[in-house]
């Protein structure tokens, strides 16, 4: 790696760790929520819907995880009082998952953190810098998506 690449790598690793730390601290500061970051992100996925709920399949697709994993996690969140399950009105076989009042509060706290983070990033950038940052993040996101879809990383045989 050249110096630029090394710096970018260090920044990405630090940013990833810091986001996880800050989100964890946010959970502690806002009471005994007894939630993992995976559960917070599951709440976030559920909150994205503008309907009266979302399905387990939609959550699994959004998060890129298996149906059994989401089913188990949703069950735990129901037990903790953050989500509720109801039957669909169009098809009684469909189970819809929605946030409870408590789940909505946690999601708002999490969204506030994300808004503050984005505002802090953007406040000193001009339009060209914002466009460059967006392009770089889209490239990075594309790499992650391709890597997850293939289940493989380049040069894995070098180890």
Topology:
Elements (H helix, E strand, L loop, with lengths): L2 H27 L7 H11 L8 H8 L3 H14 L2 E5 L7 E5 L1 H22 L4 H24 L9
Antiparallel strand pairs: 1-2
Helix pairs in contact: 2-5, 3-4
Characterise this structure.
By secondary structure, the protein is mainly alpha-helical. The protein has six helices and two strands, in the order H-H-H-H-E-E-H-H. It has helices spanning 3-29, 37-47, 56-63, 67-80, 101-122, 127-150, and strands spanning 83-87, 95-99. Strands 1-2 form a two-stranded antiparallel sheet. A hairpin with a 7-residue loop joins strand 1 and strand 2 (95-99). Helix 2 (37-47) crosses helix 5 and helix 3 packs across helix 4 (67-80). The model has no long low-confidence stretch (mean pLDDT 87).
What would the keywords be for this entry?
6 helices; single chain; mainly alpha; two-stranded antiparallel ribbon; 159 residues
In short:
The protein is mainly alpha-helical and 159 residues long. Helix content is 67%, strand content 6%. The protein contains 6 helices and 2 strands.
